[in-house]
């Protein structure tokens, strides 16, 4: 029986799990290492099965492997390793590129944007240069080819696609994807393969460039300081939550295992402290939580509701493609099934803590990511009102059922406690105004008293 | 030509018992003779029928949108590509090349009957293309090369050589 020690939904483990989907290898996931005694403890190292003390780690009938690529290679069947010595060497070449070039630069570039690592001007510039270079090479390579090596998916595609995953979901907005069309085509094809989908779910490509996103560059050193503070407070919030969730989970893990992100020393110390806390937190999972984490997929929390006449996807399409005021809103009010769906108003409870606008935007997009699996059952427009240092976050939600959907599934509760929630009466004048203002991104927003800055759509 | 295509399709679908076909009219429209039912006329009709008989309906698309796209390309094959006058070939390649810029398969994210029949239909043109032209229509060429390497598809057609390292400098398209 094969065991993979890895937190659920940790992106470093994706290549292993996808390879297993192709080869048919059966793997049980266990969220933390068996003999982990905390970051400080050196005593168990020489006795430990996994002296590197890194996840993911792998064990099968007493045989242990560490390092994600080695495990993926072991788990992958012969087909994924490439046919013949030449293709095998080429597969190795791309896997090494993913590990040695793409991942370190990708994390340096993307983590600050996600608000989970400090920003360093120099490091980020360098990382971008490396990555854009790699993307150009890939783009050339993929013009005449469907997959990286040979005519089918190999470990090369799995490694490189997973290494670029955060880049495509966090940074590469549509205009940037235009520059790397061949890479984008290849990436989309990969993540749509059933074996990828089983592990990754729906991969949503980055929609818009938010400030600081394309170049990840705050305007002054003062902002960097703010950002670092923000990073810390974000992490603290996370530590308080027993809940561990997708993207950030992976991110924290990687910081534990590779501290390649160049940071100021002070910042590093702070982070190490946090990491210890997090690790302890993680080791503290009780058996039930472990069992829950090991379960492959949660059941649909909405399964018990009667079928609704309102087709959310159709509404989303209408909203995206048609004029909001003249088409999408009338469509909503005409088709909305008031029994099967409910409207909610949400407001961020701690507006005084909001600093820079782009950090607040990251807060919103981060929440959307953590709610990924709710997308089929919810639509929302969340607006940032006001300006730097004097802003608030509020929005309207369309949720399946009459209950606040977040209460149905633990995975969705990460952010909702930071918001106040009010159910809206779909027939009232006030609701009509709120929905119009938040969906059309215009109006007085009198209830808040701040002017519209920008908004994000959860769809 | 359509008859050889259909028998290749039968093989790639794993249908064991060869079917009986005849042709109709000047355009040699294929007709499938069914022992215990009405005969079926037309390439797309017969090909769709074969896919269903082989229980491979995913090749016709697995969502409403993908099914529509498959049908669109099957129609394109018989109405636009077949019997296309020589001077229109360039337009067809131009359109296809643009369409395939961001796609690996013609319909959706996986291989469908649309890829098979478009491959069969375009093969006689690809055979005659010069290396330079293949490079010009890089997206069509890549798609074509992928389909001809797709397990079980090629059968009656000779492989078309595609170079994956560029001979001519890019930038002329």
UniProtKB/TrEMBL annotation, chain A:
Disordered as annotated region, ranges: 263-299
Domain GST N-terminal stretches: 1-83
Molecular functions (GO terms): translation elongation factor activity
SUPFAM superfamilies in the cross-refs: eEF1-gamma domain, GST C-terminal domain-like, Thioredoxin-like
CDD domains noted in UniProt: GST_C_EF1Bgamma_like, GST_N_EF1Bgamma
Domain GST C-terminal: 84-214
SMART domains cross-referenced by the UniProt entry: EF1G
Pfam families according to UniProt: EF1G, GST_C, GST_N
Residue ranges occupied by any EF-1-gamma C-terminal domain in the UniProt entry: 298-459
Compositionally biased residues, Acidic residues: 280-289
Subunit structure and binding partners: EF-1 is composed of four subunits: alpha, beta, delta, and gamma.
Biological role stated in the UniProt entry: Probably plays a role in anchoring the complex to other cellular components.
Protein name from the UniProt record: Elongation factor 1-gamma
Upper lineage: Eukaryota, Metazoa, Chordata, Craniata, Vertebrata
UniProtKB/TrEMBL annotation, chain B:
Record PANTHER family: EUKARYOTIC TRANSLATION ELONGATION FACTOR 1 EPSILON-1
Coiled-coil residues: none
PROSITE patterns in the record: GST_CTER (PS50405)
GO BP term (any one): positive regulation of DNA damage response, signal transduction by p53 class mediator
Taxonomic superkingdom: Eukaryota
GO CC entries: aminoacyl-tRNA synthetase multienzyme complex; cytoplasm; nucleus
Domain GST C-terminal: from-to ranges: 49-171
Name recorded for this polypeptide: GST C-terminal domain-containing protein
Species this chain originates from: Conger conger (Conger eel)
């Amino acid at each position: 029986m094969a065991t993979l020690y890895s937190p659920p939904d940790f992106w470093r483990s994706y290549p292993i799990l996808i390879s297993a989907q192709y080869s048919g290898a059966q793997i049980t996931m266990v969220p933390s290492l068996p003999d982990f005694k905390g970051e400080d403890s050196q005593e168990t190292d020489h006795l430990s099965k996994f002296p590197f003390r890194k996840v993911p780690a792998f064990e099968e009938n007493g045989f242990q492997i560490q390092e994600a690529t080695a495990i993926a290679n072991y788990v992958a069947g012969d087909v994924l390793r490439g046919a013949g010595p030449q293709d095998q060497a080429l597969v190795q070449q791309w896997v090494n590129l993913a590990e040695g070039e793409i991942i370190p630069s990708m994390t340096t570039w993307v983590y600050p944007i996600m608000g989970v690592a400090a920003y360093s001007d120099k490091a980020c510039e360098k990382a971008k240069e490396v990555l854009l270079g790699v993307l150009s090479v890939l783009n050339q390579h993929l013009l005449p080819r469907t997959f990286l090596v040979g005519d089918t998916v190999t470990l090369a595609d799995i490694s490189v696609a997973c290494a670029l995953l955060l880049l495509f979901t966090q940074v590469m907005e549509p205009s940037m994807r235009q520059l790397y069309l061949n890479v984008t085509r290849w990436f989309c094809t990969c993540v749509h393969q059933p074996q990828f989908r089983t592990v990754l779910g729906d991969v949503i490509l980055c929609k818009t460039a938010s400030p600081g996103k394309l170049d990840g560059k705050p305007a002054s050193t003062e902002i960097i300081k703010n950002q670092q503070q923000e990073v810390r407070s974000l992490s603290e919030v996370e530590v308080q939550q027993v809940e561990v969730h997708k993207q950030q989970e992976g991110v924290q893990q990687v910081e534990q295992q590779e501290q390649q992100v160049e940071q100021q020393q002070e910042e590093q110390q702070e982070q190490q402290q946090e990491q210890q806390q997090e690790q302890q937190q993680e080791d503290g999972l009780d058996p039930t939580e472990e069992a829950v984490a090991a379960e492959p997929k949660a059941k649909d929390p909405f399964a018990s509701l009667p079928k609704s006449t309102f087709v959310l996807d159709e509404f989303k399409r209408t909203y995206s493609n048609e004029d909001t005021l003249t088409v999408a809103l009338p469509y909503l009010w005409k088709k909305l099934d008031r029994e099967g769906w409910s409207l909610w108003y949400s407001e961020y409870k701690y507006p005084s803590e909001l600093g820079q606008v782009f950090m607040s935007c990251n807060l919103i997009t981060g929440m959307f990511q953590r709610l990924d699996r709710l997308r089929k059952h919810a639509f929302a427009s969340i607006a940032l009102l006001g300006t730097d240092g004097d802003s608030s976050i509020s929005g309207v939600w369309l949720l399946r059922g009459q209950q606040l959907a977040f209460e149905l599934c633990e995975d969705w509760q990460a952010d909702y406690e930071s918001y106040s929630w009010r159910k809206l009466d779909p027939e009232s004048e006030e609701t009509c105004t709120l929905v119009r203002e938040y969906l059309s991104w215009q109006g007085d927003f009198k209830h808040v008293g701040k002017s519209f800055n920008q908004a994000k759509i959860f769809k | 030509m359509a008859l050889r295509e259909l028998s290749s399709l039968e093989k790639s679908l794993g249908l064991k018992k060869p079917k009986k076909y005849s042709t109709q009219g000047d355009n040699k429209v294929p007709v499938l003779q069914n022992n215990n039912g009405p005969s079926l006329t037309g390439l797309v009709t017969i090909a769709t029928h074969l896919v269903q008989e082989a229980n491979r309906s995913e090749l016709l698309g697995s969502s409403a949108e993908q099914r529509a796209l498959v049908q669109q390309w099957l129609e394109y094959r018989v109405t636009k590509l077949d019997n296309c006058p020589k001077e229109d070939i360039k337009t067809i390649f131009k359109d296809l090349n643009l369409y395939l810029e961001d796609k690996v398969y013609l319909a959706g994210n996986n291989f469908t009957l649309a890829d098979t029949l478009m491959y069969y239909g375009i093969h006689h043109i690809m055979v005659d293309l010069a290396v330079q032209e293949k490079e010009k229509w890089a997206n069509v060429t890549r798609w074509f090369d992928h389909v001809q390497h797709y397990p079980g598809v090629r059968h009656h057609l000779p492989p078309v050589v595609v170079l994956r390292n560029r001979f001519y400098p890019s930038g002329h398209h």
